[in-house]
Amino acid sequence: MQYKIGFATLLTLVSTSVSSGVRNYVASIDQSHWNLETSSPLQCTLKHTIPNYGTAVFESKAGRTMDLDFVLKMKRKPERETAASLRSVAPSWRPGIPARDIVRLTYQPQFDAEVSKQAAWVMLTELEQGMQPTFYYQDWYNPVDQVAVGLNAANFHNSYFEFVSCIDSLLPYGFEDIAFTVLNFRDRNGTLTPTSRKKLSRIKEFLSYDPNLELVLIDAYTDSFGGDAENMSISSGQAENLKQFFLDAGISSDRIVTQSHGEKRHIATNSSASGRAQNRRVVIRMER
Predict the structure, then answer these.
(1) Domain harbouring 239, CATH code
(2) 44 and 133 together in one domain
(3) How confident is the model at residue 92 (pLDDT cuts 50, 70, 90)?
(4) HEC-encoded secondary structure of the chain
(5) Are residues 38 and 125 in the same domain?
(6) Residues 185, 268 within the same domain
(7) Containing domain of residue 223, as a range?
(8) In whole angstroms, how large is the CA radius of gyration of the chain?
(9) Nearest CA among 108, 22, 16 for reference residue 71
(10) Which of 38, 85, 97, 111 gets the highest tally of CB atoms within 10 A of its CB?
(11) For the segment 127-161, what is each residue's pLDDT rounded down to a tens digit?
């Protein structure tokens, strides 16, 4: 019952931007700035400073699916689990427009506030229309005070459209999609399959934007055709070729570890062409 009463109290606060017992944090028109802090094929970050409170951050990263994260970074983190509501409120210079619910959420102790992908998109849509997404909750330091934290839509549009353009240009894969990569060879001469060439191109493209790797492990294998020494030599050459690939991408040699296994550790039978094709491989593992 207390929880329901708390939310009812929160919702009544939205009818006015300033009322008794409510501390409001929102940038004025002059203070309102939106900055596209990061813009690359790997990450897009849009930030808005809320004076005396913290920073609102929208962020999207490269990946197979389009994501969008929102974090309300607070100078003072919650002391306890706190129920909150997020509503779209008209700014004071647009009276008469009713507030709209976006989502209810719970602040976790000592963590910044986060909202779901869908709610984050709704917030951007509301800001685009000149509305003011606002968080409401009871102050965890002063139980008689309520807190309202708003995002001002002033000066929003230019940075927002740049942010959307940046998201549209993100790579369709992220680091987690290339961190473990298996390359296969069409033959014993070291010719990569078309699919493997595409995988290697993705790694090269990603590293051209962010070459910061802590460790690269390269394990090379062959099928069982030929003698042990010959197969070990082939796998050693393949491992060295891949090492040179990473050196050319700007990775320091002391962060690259290669191992040649020859015809050991088969993952398929060598009695068929398809099985041998699976065994002719290089496994790449990257860590950041």
Answers:
(1) 3.30.1330.60
(2) yes
(3) confident
(4) CHHHHHHHHHHHHHHCCCCCCEEEECCCCCCCCEEEEEECCCEEEEEEEECCCEEEEEEEECCCCCCCEEEEEECCCCCCCEEEEEEEECCCCCCCCCCEEEEEEEECCCCCEEECHHHHHHHHHHHHCCCEEEEEEECCCCCCCEEEEECCCCCCHHHHHHHHHHHHCCCCCCHHHHCEEEEEECCCCCCECHHHHHHHHHHHHHHHHCCCCCEEEEEEECCCCCCHHHHHHHHHHHHHHHHHHHHHCCCCHHHEEEEECCCCCCCCCCCCHHHHHHHCEEEEEEEC
(5) yes
(6) yes
(7) 175-287
(8) 27
(9) 108
(10) 85
(11) 999 999 999 999 888 878 899 999 999 999 999 99
Lowest mean pLDDT among 46-55, 144-153, 182-191: 182-191
Kindly indicate the confidence band of residue 120, based on its pLDDT and cuts at 50, 70 and 90. Answer: very high
Mean pLDDT of 24-39: 96
Domain end position, chosen among 144, 168, 192: 168
Among 168, 188, 223, the domain boundary falls at 168
Of the pLDDT bands very low, low, confident and very high (cuts 50, 70, 90), residue 274 is confident
190 confidence band (pLDDT: 50, 70, 90): confident
**Do 162 and 218 fall within a single domain?**
no
Q: Is the model more confident about 132 or about 272?
A: 132
Angstrom distances, CA of residue 12 to CA of 8, 15, 89, 90, 237: 6, 6, 12, 15, 71
The number of distinct structural domains making up the chain is 2
The whole model's pTM is what? 0.83
What are the tens digits of pLDDT across the range 154-165? 999 999 999 999
Contact (Cβ atoms closer than 8 angstroms) between residue 196 and residue 284 = no
